[in-house]
Amino acid sequence: MLVIVDHFFKAIIPIACKTTLSSEGWAKILRDEVYAKYGMPVTVISDRGPQFVSKFLQDLYKMLDIKGNASTAFHPQTDGQTECANQEVEKYLRIFINFQQTDWPEWLPLAAFQHNNRVHSATGKSPFFINFGRNPRVAPDSHSHAPLRTPASEAFKATMKHIHDETKTALEKVAVQMKNQYDKKRKATVEYQIGDKVWLDTTNLHLARPKKKLDDKRISPFLILEKCGLSAYKLKLPATWKIYPVFNETLLTPYVAPTFANQKQDPPPPPNIINDEEQYEIDTILDHKLHKVCGPKDPKTGKYTTNTVTDYLVAWKGYGTEENKWTKESELENAKEAIAEYWESRKDTITVQAIVVDNIKADGSGSPTFILNSRMKDGNVQFQVQQGTDFVITSWYFEHEIPHLSELIKDYYWVSREEFGEEYRPVDRYAPEEEGG
């Protein structure tokens, strides 16, 4: 469902549509439901869904002289009136739709009518009255109690009156609840200036740390570059962050300088100059990942070769966790000691993801079979299987291709080298393939 709200006279237009709505689909809705009925809009405020921020839509808005204003990162309340309207319509539908919840599109026109005929708290008038200069005719002017021709007509009349009364009560109730809930969470507004430093809330950020629960609640501070709209600010983020740099004020906290000298953080150290290039000092290597890249073409076969490369997650000395960066091994030529220390620290860590010892005979002969990993492919689960330990042969199989392992797949779990011994581990530094198979 898509709900359009006119920010001037507060009318709503609820539309039944799929979550896969495209930019072209939204353009048609804008033409048929807004332009054809109310004229050309001046501004369109939306969330940051791909259908609303696509290049196609940006060009269309530019051609029609419409200002597109997407909500700021992690703050859908930028489009707050639509959020409230969504909740009101959902409240209405919850009351009247059938048990199977299949007839909700049929109730949308009546939901819109009830909302648009109700006095809005901001204007003191109904959206219908502001738009047309009068209130709609809701019920017959005549109060005649002449008998109707059919019982069905009488029942329909009674049903509509009941729906109208219940809807009015329900919408008034939800409006009060929403206001009370908003007032509880609302905090005093802080007016920031360009150049101010602020902490950024990490609730919606995915930092490279194992446990979100133990992660920092706020990070940096960051410098404010400009104010965007009434309550959003653009921050100077690290170049490695590939996110929208505008955040609502609710995610920002004023930076307060430490009271005592020993609480102050030292400024980031300057980079070293090696071969006329800046090189930042590594504090520690936190993690690694392997992936395949296309190599040169084999002159004999004419096919491109595949190389496996390693990336390391690097923490830089003197910088916060927000500056941690995945870096190619080829870019860490002067960090061989740090890389060696990283692998030394991982000696006794988990390297085998699962083991199935179905090929071990009573006399101890035979070789084990490893299930190294699993993944989704073409809508089904695949398992990566390794046979033996002297040399590595791994292949991806769907479960129906390895029926003899069906019971043993249930034992798919993590084990360590210490538990099973060195002879049961796969090739050192093993990481599952990301593509192919």
Explain what this protein looks like in three dimensions:
- This is Integrase catalytic domain-containing protein.
- The protein has 437 residues and is α+β, with helices and mostly antiparallel strands.
- It has four domains: 2-131 and 161-185, Ribonuclease H-like superfamily/Ribonuclease H (Nucleotidyltransferase, domain 5); 197-259; 273-345, OB fold (Dihydrolipoamide Acetyltransferase, E2P) (Beta Barrel), CATH 2.40.50; 348-437, no CATH class.
- It is 25% helix and 24% strand.
- The protein has eight helices and 17 strands.
- The strands form six sheets. Strands 8-7-6-5-9 form a five-stranded antiparallel beta sheet, with no helix packed on it.
- Helix 3 (80-96) packs antiparallel against helix 6.
- It is extended.
- The two termini are 39 Å apart.
